[in-house]
Every structure is written in structure tokens, then in C-alpha cells.
Amino acid sequence: MSFRERLQSWRYNLVPDHLVGEILTKRWTDNAIPFLALVVTLATFGSIIPGFFKLNALQESTRQLGEFSMVVTGMTVVMLGGGIDLSVGSIFALSCFSAVYVFFILEQSIWLALAASLATGLVFGAINGYLVGYLRLRAFLTTLVTFIFGRALFDILVTTYAADVQLSQATSDVLDFIGDSTFWGLSVSVWLAIILAIVTHIALTRSRPGWHVLAVGGSRRSAHNAGIRVRRTVFMTYVFSGFCASIGGFLIACRLSGAGPGTGLNLEIMALTAAVVGGVSLGGGRGSVIKGLMGAIIVLTMTNGLIRLGYGTGTNQMVLGIMLAVAVTIDIRWLKNRHKVLNEVYVAPVYLKMGETQSAVPGSGTPYELDNRLSEADHIGLGELEGPEDVILDRDDNLYCGTRHGEIVRFFAPDYVRSEVFAHIGGFPLGLAFDKSGNLISCVGAMGLYSVSPQREVKRLSAETARSWTSIVDDARLRDPNDCDIAPDGRIYFTDSTKRYDAHDWALDSIENRATGRLLVYDPKDGSTKTLLDGYRYTNGVCMAHDGKSLFFAESWACRVHRYWLEGPKAGTAECVIRDMPGYPDNINRASDGNYWMAWLGMRTPSFDLSLRHPDMRKRMTRRLPQDEWLFPNINTGGVVKFNEKGGIVEAMGDLSGGAHPMVTSMREHKGFLFVGGILNNRIGRYKISGADPNWTSPASCWGATS
């Protein structure tokens, strides 16, 4: 290895470039920016303002926060539904006045004052909801009109009844408790805001009405086509916003025991800024209540902090305007360009120098020398199939295969002319195996491990495994389960080719060539799935050894086969038994003579081997060239190889004509014939094996002559 290549190896193999792309794909990254802004805001004002975090100051701030958070929660729900509510300040002020009027002027109970406050908010919210939801008026203009009308009405009422409120002698212990008392160090308003936030969050994420709000905010047309009552959903978001603003108005009425000209002034701007700064999208459908609350804390801390530093109202408004402009710009630009950023940074190739290999060219005289025997194979299902990646036969000699349409097709023995859809699973059924009870186990790309009973009942066995807490990569979900086999004790061993890409993105995984493949086991006794081995380059085939004490699995992009020991002194360890093959290995299955069949899905080429030593070139290639011009593994020519227990190559065969089975992903021996499948083929091949045992079957080899 030259010094330059050594530097490339250190640069691309030791620096975890892929973590940037992984982080950007996570949903929690949308929360990271507002959370970071929250930490910076609290740290900044806490350090420059003496006593900022003292108990008395915090209690007063949290009372304001409780009232403000109520309004922000309502605004968040409206924005998630694709709307905007500029009238929340007016509703807040009018609800405050309603409570003050009923309690101090009419001298009614505090509970009647609460009812009056809620009624005010619900009525104005219903007006907004009816105009925007049912009459389909513009939300911005409609709520702006409501804001102007509500603010004018509030100013008139305050001017008219201010003296009466001041002269009132009404008192209430409940009012004083709500306005001034604390519970476990927090004011009543904060506890109410927390309860409301929790209930709203659960409703949005765990209930049908909440899902409808998010669906409507994401796309009203799609929501309507899906049968969601869009107008009613929009109506209810505004009613809820009015309800939240009225609760906040009642709380400030209890805290101040009155209402003044400044009540709720500019509250709509503060609430809108808080929601957007927290990460709630103006376009709707994206955000959460938690984000809104983070934004509320940021905005309230900022405004109160500036006031305590001696800055006036004008400065506060200017800062809010700047914050809103920046947040809106980030929201729009990030939402529009996120996929472009991911396309630029997600694929992160590594350096790999492939070992020298023996030739597979006819006449080369090596054990890997391919011949043209597979071209003699008969065709089954020609033109009826698309993508029979794996093939398998049952005890009655019937033939099964998966298709890219999500179906498992059964061809009936003995001539395999008549067929039927045995089961519809969905996804792309790949590796197949029969268990002792006759259930057909299948690895389904991007879906997981499934079972189909003899009665055709489809059951999902596993879709995830335990999450590795030390890994940024989400390795819990089964992204590309590829092949499976079953041990004598019933445990199902299967390969998950990559943790970073789905099955249809195999080309990206080959170009990146990062070791993210793994070997897993599913235990039917407790339904658990565990990762046994990790860190392989596209694990792509697995087969139990004849003695049931070990298994073989293929590592495609590294052109290697490994043996994993289940029992004995090597139990729990793996060793490489075949390395540096000229072809990319795929499924592995037993042979009748005690050896093993292995598929080659493609052949190595000098150009791609060379590209693996230049990760920077591969990175530029994925960013600058269309995908049909990329350099990736050759999968147009492959073959079938037989190897023994120690990894020695026994024979190799192919289809040099390219007319029948140039690309092979699986093969299965059964009663003297080799049945051949290919993920890009439109047929299954049946080849007569010279000298093979005409009575040997895979089910009998695994489970005995009788079930």
C-alpha cells in the first residue's frame, strides 16, 4: 500500500463521515436546533443578569410562562393543521375581561367567571373556525380581522368598566390560590400548562383526531381524498386555540385581579414567534407541542431578559421580528433543501483494497473456472415471474419462489407448469426456508421476517432487533433481511445485508462499501431477535452445516464466506473459510454429496476493484453523475459454485451464453436437479445434475424423511 493510499485509508475509514448523514435523517434533529437555542438563551441571560435564576424571579417568570404556554399550545395546533391564528391576543384579553367582569363587577363565583372566560374563547374560536374551515376564507386575513375587532371591543370595555373593577370589593381564596400560590415549587398556571401540553401531545400523536390534524396540515387535498373531514378538522383547531387562549386569559385575570389596556398586547406576535422558533412549520403538518413549549421559553426568556437589562418595548419588538424572520427563513429553506443536503452527505464511501483473486475465465484451469452448463437448464414460469430471488421445494416436490410484487408463487409438481399465488406478503420476499412444521419462513426486504403456514396464514415474526445504544445508526429496524435457514432447535438464523440502506438501494451500499451487514437469530420460543455478528460487507446468504453445529454465511462485497460455530470449543466465533473469490457470493444451500452450493450474483471487475481504493472518486460520482452512469458491481454475469466443509472449491458452472441464467442469486438441489433463481430473472431454471442422488431432498436432509 502506497503512502497516498494509506492516508486515504486513515481519512475515510477512521473519520466517521456517515454520522453526519445519519444524524440529519433523524427526526430528533428538528428538535436539536430549538433545544440548542434554548440552552444558549438561558445560559446567556443567566450569566449577564444577576439573580436571574433566583427563586422569586423564577416564580414570577413561570407564572407568565404558564399563561403564555397555553396560548402557544393553541397556536401550535392551528399551525400543525396548516393555519394561523392572529387573534389569540384579542381572545386572551377578552377572556381575561370576561372573568374580571363576572367576578368583580357582577360579583359572581370564580367558577362562573371561569365559565364566562371559556365561553368567550370558544365563541371567538368557533367564529374563526367557521370562517376559515367551512367558508374557506384566508386564515391570515380572517384572523387579522378578528384580532382587530376583538382588540377594539376589549379597549372599549376596559375604558368603560375600569373604574368599577377598581372599586370592587370581591375576594376569593380560590382566585388568590390560582393567581399566587405554588405547588411543589411551581405555580398553578405552570402545572395547568404542563397538563394541557401532555394531553395535547398525546392527542396529536396517539389519537385519530390528532392524526387528522397532522394529515390536513401536510396536505389538505390528500387528507380529503383519504376520507378525512378536512373542514371539521380545521374548525376544531381554531376552537381549541380559542380554548387555550381563554384559559390563559383566566389565569392572568386571577394573577392580576384585573385587566388593563396592555393585557394581551402583541401576544399574537410572541406566540407565533415562539411556535416558529421552536420548529413548528408555517406550512403545517410538521412540529410538536414540545417544540412550541421550547419556543415559548426562548421568547419569554428573551423578552423578560431584555426588560431587566433596561431595554424598552421597541427593542423587544425588534428582537422578536428578527427571531421570527430567521426562524421562518431556516424553516422554509431547510424544508425545501433537506433532501439535497442529505444527497450530498449521506453516501460516505470507505477505502478497501481487495485481495488478488484467481480467474474464473473458461480455460484458466483454476477451481473457479466457469463453464456453460447452466445454459442447458430448462425454464419454469418463463415470462410469468419477476424476480424469483430464492427458490425452495417442499416434501411434495412443489416449487416456491418470491416475486417483486410481494407474492410467493407455488408451481405444482411434477411438471411445474401449473402455478398459483400461495401467499401475498407484500414487500419483496427474498430468502426462503421450511421449518419442521411445514411453515414457510421468508425474509422480506424492508419488512422483516415472516412465516406462512400450510393453511396460508401470514404472520410477522420479527421486524426489529435490540438497538445498540452506542451507535448513531438506527440498527433496530431490519432494513434488508436477505436469506434465512433454520437450526435443528427451531431457531431461525438470517442475514440483514445493511443497516443503512433498503433492499432497492443495494447499489448505494456497494459504492459506500461500509461494513454494516450482520447475522441475526430469531428464537420462536420467546419471539426475540438478537444480533450475533456485525461489521460485514453486505451479508447475503446463510446455510446450516450438515451436522447442525455451525453455519455458513456470505459476505458479498468482500467476496468471502464465513463459518459461524453454534456448538463446540469455537461456539460464538466466526472464521473466514473462503476469501478473495472472483465472484460476489449470495445464497448458500446444502448439496446431496455433503458439500454446499453457493450462488454468484455477479463477477468482480478490475475497474470496480480499483474504485474501492478511491473513496473520494466514488463520493464525487454519486454527487455529480446520474445513477445510470455510476460504476458499481457487475451483476449481469454470475454462476453457481460448490464448496466443501473446509472452503475448498469443488466445481463451478455458469451460463456463458447469457441467454438463460447469466445472473444467479439462489439455487436449491432437489432429487437430482438444481433449481436456479435470480433477482433480475423472469424464470426459474432446472438443471439435471450429473451423478447427484435422485432421492435426496432438502426437507429430508434438515428434518428427516418424515415430518
UniProtKB/TrEMBL annotation:
Residues 482-568 form the Strictosidine synthase conserved region domain. One of its GO terms (molecular function) is transmembrane transporter activity. GO terms for cellular component: plasma membrane. Keywords: Cell membrane, Membrane, Transmembrane, Transmembrane helix. It is found in: Cell membrane. InterPro entries: 6-blade_b-propeller_TolB-like, ABC_transp_permease, Strictosidine_synth_cons-reg. It is a multi-pass membrane protein. It comes from the Bacteria. The chain crosses the membrane at residues 32-53, 74-104, 110-132, 139-163, 183-204, 234-253, 265-285, 292-311. PANTHER family: ABC TRANSPORTER PERMEASE PROTEIN YPHD-RELATED-RELATED, GALACTOFURANOSE TRANSPORTER PERMEASE PROTEIN YTFT. This is ABC transporter permease. It comes from Mesorhizobium erdmanii. The lineage of its organism: Bacteria, Pseudomonadati, Pseudomonadota, Alphaproteobacteria, Hyphomicrobiales.
